[in-house]
Design brief:
Helix content: 40-55%
Number of helices: 3
Distance between the termini: 34 Å
Largest sheet: 4 strands, antiparallel
Structural class: alpha+beta
Radius of gyration: 13 Å
Strand content: 15-25%
Low-confidence stretches: none
Order of helices and strands: HEEHEEH
Strand order of the largest sheet: 1-2-4-3
Length: 96
């Protein structure tokens, strides 16, 4: 079920630095000490995404990784997006 604008706002308020984009995406940028750590993080995210069958858009720029989430088959944001965001934040904690 697609979240209402109010539900998205509440979920963003509880998130750690995630922002809304165009009402259909949430995004966050992570920074790492090295390119190697950034790639290791992306590899972990890829495994999580595959296990969840919920795949993010991932952009890599040296030591920065941007993740964007949306539930494509629902054409909007769902609880699945925020659950994935939480999992990605917990994964990032291993790299800081």
């Amino acid at each position: 079920m697609v979240l209402t604008a109010e539900e998205v706002e509440a979920s963003l308020y509880d998130s750690e630095g995630w922002d809304a984009e165009d009402g259909k995406w949430i995004k966050k940028e992570y920074e790492f000490r090295s390119f190697r750590k950034a790639i290791s993080f992306v590899n972990e995210i890829a495994k999580l995404a595959q296990d969840r069958q919920h795949h993010p858009k991932i952009s890599i720029d040296r030591r920065r990784v941007q993740i964007k989430l949306s539930t494509m088959d629902k054409q909007g944001l769902t609880q699945k997006d925020f659950e994935s965001a939480y999992a990605y934040d917990r994964t990032y904690e291993k790299y800081i």
